Amino acid sequence: MAAIFNPQKANTTGMVSRRRPFLKMNGLGNDFLVWDARDDALRLTDDVIAALGNRQTGVGFDQMITVERSPLGVDAFMRIHNCDGSQVDACGNATRCIGRLLMEEAGADAVTIETNAGLLRAYSSKLPRTITVDMGEPRLLWNQIPLAEEFHDTRAIELQIGPIDDPILHTPSVVNMGNPHAIFWVDDVEAYDLATVGPLLEHHPIFPEGANISLADVFGRNEIRVKVWERGAGLTRACGTAACAVAVAAARDKRAGRTSVIHLPGGPLTIEWRESDDHVLMTGATEIEYEGEIDLETLDWARTAAGDPANDSSPEAAQ
Question: Which residues are annotated as site, described as Could be important to modulate the pK values of the two catalytic cysteine residues (predicted)?
Fold first, then answer.
């Protein structure tokens, strides 16, 4: 993947060091701790992952990504844990980051990444550090989301929060992009306290597996502003699968065309819902923030090297 990914190294006394190298990366501010476990397996408990994910006392991240050998023989398997230790099946921004690392390592223009949600194909872009990922087809049936009860039309389901005669939010679109999403269409994404309503909606009984909750405002032609409460992670600066879900839901409901720019707090993602095969293509910037090492016994950690040079690319490159 890169020289910075080394398995546990023998120290000068011949003992195996417990200090393990990692990368800190982000996709538009959606940040990740990345391990290379292809030659040296790594399994951490939920409590350890949560401790590392704590932004006050640990490294701090939205998701922890473990890159492993693929059982199917493709370029790599990507295991994803939220900062609370829970494991999830898909993360679009992380897929772009890992795709970039694998392509740089192999000197390739495309790689295939195995996830619990299926195989994803990542492609390089003519723009620096900008990666496109084929996220596959959206799942749109009620039992694919999944929902706890049947709805024939998932473009708008019966769900609201607040008083019956004056709900705060209501009638979301629902889409599965490897994980479940509910999108509430609003006029101003900042007019709502998503930190308060997000957890309530994430764990609503209608979502047996929980859900990612998005507020979406179509403010221009194929321009959509989005704010996301991410299942198991909370408020996030960017969520790739949420951007894909919003773009698909907007196109289904004729709010936008099949290609949209999704404006997240961390920056823009360009999403194309390809008409030829219904696959969703996500394009956006990636960043290596720094290299580091963690003592797996004490969880002490330190930065060991800088990441990407400044001013080499910007989130606007995704447009």
Answer: 181, 230
Q: In one letter, which amino acid is 288?
A: I
The closest alpha carbon to 104, from 125, 90, 83, 120, belongs to 125
Give the confidence band of 318 by pLDDT, cuts at 50, 70, 90. Answer: very low
DSSP states along 14-31 = SPBP-EEEEEEEEETTEE
Residue 136 class from Cβ within 10 Å (0-12 exposed, 13-18 middle, 19+ buried)?
A: buried
Active site residue 83: no
DSSP character string of 231-268:
TTTEEES--HHHHHHHHHHHHHTTSS-SEEEEEETTEE
What pLDDT is attached to residue 311?
59
79 in a known ligand binding site? no
The pTM (predicted TM-score) of the whole model is: 0.87
Query: Number of folded domains in the chain?
Result: 2
- CA pair distance 25, 98, nearest whole angstrom: 9
Contact 241, 179 (CB under 8 A): yes
Residue 3 pLDDT class (50, 70, 90 cuts): very low
Q: Verify whether residue 239 is a known catalytic residue.
A: yes
Burial class (CB in 10 A: 0-12, 13-18, 19+), 166: exposed
- Does residue 92 have a known ligand-binding role? yes
Q: Is 231 annotated as a binding residue?
A: yes
Q: Looking at residue 84, which CATH number applies to its domain?
A: 3.10.310.10
Residue 45 falls inside a structural domain: yes
- How far apart CA 45 and CA 242 sit, in angstroms, is 27
Report the amino acid identity of residue 158. Answer: E
